[in-house]
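#onboarding

Welcome to the new folks! Below is a worked example of what a typical request in this channel looks like: someone posts a single protein sequence, and someone else replies with the predicted structure as tokens. Don't worry about understanding the tokens yet, we'll cover that in week two.

Example request:
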Amino acid sequence: MNDTATIEKEVEINETQPILESNAPAQAGNVALENGVPTIISQGPEKDAPAVEAAKTAASAAVSTSAHAPFAGVNVMSGAEHLHTISILVENQPGVLSRVSHVFARRGFNLESLAVSRTEDPTVSRMTVVVAGDDAAFTQIGKQLLKLIDVIKVIDHTRDDLVNRELALIKVRATSANRGEIMQIANAFRAKMVDIGEDSIMIEVTGKEAKVDAIQTMLEPFEILELVRTGKIVLVRGPKQT
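Example response:
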């Protein structure tokens, strides 16, 4: 076989590769659902890949015509997109977070929030991820996640009845003149003052994302010196285990 034929064959092979690839071994198919949990199951190459690419191309074209088009790689919600809250159960091993994040990065998804911790089983960790995307693209992401050998289960909580919380620590500049007003705002949101200094107050607030957003907005006129938020964590109400 001459060099030209070899190059043409390589190009043909590359063009037939699926849009999403993973170097990790694929999980076994026909994974059974547990307690009715809507687990996304890996079923091989994505048949809807061309449709997904067409949708993403159309969305990109719409964004490029906007007067405020974002930078490349920034996740933009279109009319067909909404926020997905998902739980990913993984083996508690080094490097798992990097591999999971890489799956989202390869598709250009921007994670709205990410929280990771051990579960009741010390060998298993739970990742709670909030990400924007349309349903078709999100299904592809779920299939690719399950191809990672460290991933045990992927649960889409879009239709679940959830208890969700977020914790934030907010350090605000405070003076003798405005300290009382800052404390009143904190009390109104049932927040805790965890540190009081001569020139600052640190406030701890726990609740839904909207509550944290609201207290942050109220404190901004006083000058927020530092802010850290955990991101959303969720559990399904009732006896169903995820």
